Amino acid sequence: MAAIDLNADLGETVDGVPTADDEAMFAVISSASIACGGHAGDAGSMRDAVARAVRHGVAVGGHPSFLDRAGFGRVPHAVEPELLRAQVRAQLLALVDAGADLRYVKPHGALYHAVSADEPVAGAVAAAVADVSERVGRGLPVLALDGAIARAADAAGLPFLREAFLDRGYLADGRLVPRGAPGAVLGDPDAVAARAVRLTAEGVVDTVDGGTVRADAVSLCLHGDSPGAVAMARAVRAALDAAGIEVRAPW
């Protein structure tokens, strides 16, 4: 049976207000990337997310970002590598201290894009993940798109795993369409569900210019704060189940 991981970015509470229907999302995913204070989330929301993960049998990943709560982690920041390493390490350890059985790390927002293109940033993040790996007693995989972070993870002795996005538009070169540009965010549950099945079966995804690009991945992402996220997640899970594709965490 074919298998794929279905992950969502959750626990993104801002000033005590959740940005997603976490309870509904946890019911259909296999991995949750939990905000750990950089762009959203706090000690209480992390504990709540960990409890939901245990209840639903969902793997927990850390979702660190630049320290940018005002911009929800979507604004690029220039941070000296050693300071960035310390900031990411602190976020991940906060999630561990909240009770998480941490299984992987996926950067958020602007940091996610930076680790693909910027070698020093990628090195700092990989070093932070390696630091936390020593704390938890296992080499934590890094989940991201290809680029500098894949090399940095390898250099740090960490597994690197690729993901693909179900609710984001793709450019012809495999990068995501920048937020705010036409086609950046998808919202049709049926189209997103069909994309999930095709990505799993064929490893390709449609691009905004009408072509296709390879997107081999072990995990498929839906953003919990996207409009209609729950409807899309349920449609994706139903489509994968109907296609005989098992949804399970690879960590």
Task: Give the structure's gist in a few sentences.
The protein has 251 residues and is an alpha/beta fold. It has helices at residues 22-26, 43-56, 81-97, 109-117, 119-136, 148-155, 189-202, 229-242; strands at 3-10, 31-35, 59-63, 102-105, 142-144, 160-165, 204-206, 212-214, 219-223, 246-247. Strands 1, 2, 3, 4, 5, 6, 9 and 10 form an eight-stranded parallel sheet that branches.
Secondary-structure topology with pairs:
Layout: E1 3-10, H1 22-26, E2 31-35, H2 43-56, E3 59-63, H3 81-97, E4 102-105, H4 109-117, H5 119-136, E5 142-144, H6 148-155, E6 160-165, H7 189-202, E7 204-206, E8 212-214, E9 219-223, H8 229-242, E10 246-247
Parallel strand pairs: 1-2, 1-9, 1-10, 2-3, 3-4, 5-6, 6-9
Antiparallel strand pairs: 7-8
Could you walk me through the main structural features you see in this protein, from its secondary elements to its overall organization?
There is one protein chain. The chain is of the alpha/beta class. The chain is built from eight helices and ten strands. Strands 1, 2, 3, 4, 5, 6, 9 and 10 form an eight-stranded parallel sheet that branches. A two-stranded antiparallel sheet has the order 7-8. Strand 3 (59-63), helix 3 and strand 4 form a beta-alpha-beta unit. The longest helix is centred in the middle third of the chain and has 18 residues, at 119-136. The two termini are 18 Å apart.
Computed over alpha carbons, the radius of gyration is 17 Å
β-strand number: 10
Instruction: Report the uncertain regions.
Output: none
Strand fraction equals 15-25%
Mean pLDDT: 97
SS summary, helix count: 8
At the fold tier of CATH, the topology name is: TIM Barrel
- The CATH class: Alpha Beta
Shape: globular
Number of domains: 1
What is the succession of H and E elements?
EHEHEHEHHEHEHEEEHE
CATH superfamily: Glycoside hydrolase/deacetylase
Distance between the termini: 18 Å
What fraction, in percent, of the residue positions are helical? 25-40%
Largest sheet: 8 strands, parallel
CATH second-level architecture: Alpha-Beta Barrel
